[in-house]
Amino acid sequence: MYKSSKQRDLIMNYMKQINGHVTAEQIFNDLNANGTKISLATVYRNLNILCDLHEIKKIAHPIEGYQYDKTCKPHYHLHCIKCDRILDLDIPYKEDFNKEMSEATGLPITTHDMMVEGICEDCLKKQ
């Protein structure tokens, strides 16, 4: 198991305070801008540990690499094709889909992630 870490606590507190999804570079820049001296390697290392501990979730952004989400419960995401943000979708998680996939493949499916692409509400309002 992992020992407690001051840097990890700082990163977790940062994650709890933000809205949306952030990159490791954004966390690094924001923490350093606020006077917390931390290296980018330390940010990445601790984000990976927080993911291993199921405290945060790593999401593959189609363009920017990985982003991090403070919400670990299963949920779906929208990638906005206009502004490139990733947003949580407020729709129920389909547990039955895991069972359907298990039956279709003969494999034990325990969870799934889904990212849909479209246009977010903010971008729709701008049109």
UniProtKB/TrEMBL annotation:
<keyword id="KW-0479">Metal-binding</keyword>
<dbReference type="InterPro" id="IPR043135">
    <property type="entry name" value="Fur_C"/>
</dbReference>
<feature type="binding site">
    <location>
        <position position="83"/>
    </location>
    <ligand>
        <name>Zn(2+)</name>
    </ligand>
</feature>
<keyword id="KW-0862">Zinc</keyword>
<dbReference type="GO" id="GO:0000976">
    <property type="term" value="F:transcription cis-regulatory region binding"/>
</dbReference>
<dbReference type="GO" id="GO:0045892">
    <property type="term" value="P:negative regulation of DNA-templated transcription"/>
</dbReference>
<dbReference type="GO" id="GO:0003700">
    <property type="term" value="F:DNA-binding transcription factor activity"/>
</dbReference>
<keyword id="KW-0408">Iron</keyword>
<comment type="similarity">
    <text>Belongs to the Fur family.</text>
</comment>
<keyword id="KW-0805">Transcription regulation</keyword>
<feature type="binding site">
    <location>
        <position position="80"/>
    </location>
    <ligand>
        <name>Zn(2+)</name>
    </ligand>
</feature>
<dbReference type="GO" id="GO:0008270">
    <property type="term" value="F:zinc ion binding"/>
</dbReference>
<dbReference type="InterPro" id="IPR036390">
    <property type="entry name" value="WH_DNA-bd_sf"/>
</dbReference>
<feature type="binding site">
    <location>
        <position position="112"/>
    </location>
    <ligand>
        <name>Fe cation</name>
    </ligand>
</feature>
<keyword id="KW-0804">Transcription</keyword>
<dbReference type="GO" id="GO:1900376">
    <property type="term" value="P:regulation of secondary metabolite biosynthetic process"/>
</dbReference>
<dbReference type="InterPro" id="IPR036388">
    <property type="entry name" value="WH-like_DNA-bd_sf"/>
</dbReference>
<dbReference type="InterPro" id="IPR002481">
    <property type="entry name" value="FUR"/>
</dbReference>
<feature type="binding site">
    <location>
        <position position="123"/>
    </location>
    <ligand>
        <name>Zn(2+)</name>
    </ligand>
</feature>
<keyword id="KW-0238">DNA-binding</keyword>
<feature type="binding site">
    <location>
        <position position="95"/>
    </location>
    <ligand>
        <name>Fe cation</name>
    </ligand>
</feature>
<feature type="binding site">
    <location>
        <position position="120"/>
    </location>
    <ligand>
        <name>Zn(2+)</name>
    </ligand>
</feature>
<dbReference type="Pfam" id="PF01475">
    <property type="entry name" value="FUR"/>
</dbReference>
<keyword id="KW-0678">Repressor</keyword>
<protein>
    <submittedName>
        <fullName>Transcriptional repressor</fullName>
    </submittedName>
</protein>
